[in-house]
Amino acid sequence: MTWDISGNYVAGCSCAIVCGCAVDAKPRDPQGKEGCLGVGVFHVAEGRLDEVDLSGVDFALYNEFPSNLTSGDWKVGIVVDEGASDEQAEAIDTIVSGRAGGPFGDLSQFFGEYLGVERAEVSLSDGETPRLTVGGRSDIEFTPLRGPDGTPTTVKNALFGFSPEFTLGTAKGRSEAFGLSFDSTYGEIGDFSFASEQAEGAATGR
Q1: What are the structural domain ranges in the chain?
Q2: Torsion over CA of 136, 169, 131 and 175, rounded to 10 degrees?
Q3: Model-level pTM?
Q4: Using alpha carbons only, what angle is made at residue 7 by residues 147 and 5, rounded to the nearest 5 degrees?
Q5: What is the β-pairing status of strands 138-144 and 165-177?
Q6: What is the helix, strand, coil percentage profile of the chain, to 5?
Q7: Cα–Cα distance between 113 and 115 in angstroms, integer?
Q8: How far is CA 109 from CA 26, 37, 55, 88, 96, in A?
Q9: Which end of the chain is more exposed for a tag (fewer CB within 10 A), N or C?
Q10: In the beta sheet, which residues pair with residue 152?
């Protein structure tokens, strides 16, 4: 199988700011409880799996990381937008589950439980107030953190990241899917590009 997907994403999780997952630190919420519960919505601007066109598909990726990422035992599930075809939903499931290889295949070694795929309305807005929504499950709004010059704070070259450079922020909202419930505190946005033949040094996913 050959595949590639690229576009942009908005994500939120239960971690206190800043989430430690990017550097393989033990994640903790604002109350000091260990673990990271999160959701990211991805808009595929361009993509394919073999002959299946994935351009325009939106999907949500849910996670539970009980400790630092390389400790494994992750729970991962996805929700594919109901406007996608069954063939497109199956292709996204094949990619994210790791069955098609590439960076998600590499990450699947850390999966303790793959929770499968569900369908619902999934949307992402990336204007002045970035926001992700997954019908009946998640509604999270992102606000960027800013440095002394007023520009957004970013992270580059993280050990684990959806993007080679992403913007840090706060995320406000509630999420409940696959039995994973949390109030979001930390958030991030960025552009992503993944492929079965990933370039050396590219982001490996988080």
Answers
A1: 3-191
A2: 0
A3: 0.94
A4: 135
A5: antiparallel
A6: 15, 50, 35
A7: 6
A8: 18, 19, 27, 24, 12
A9: N
A10: 146
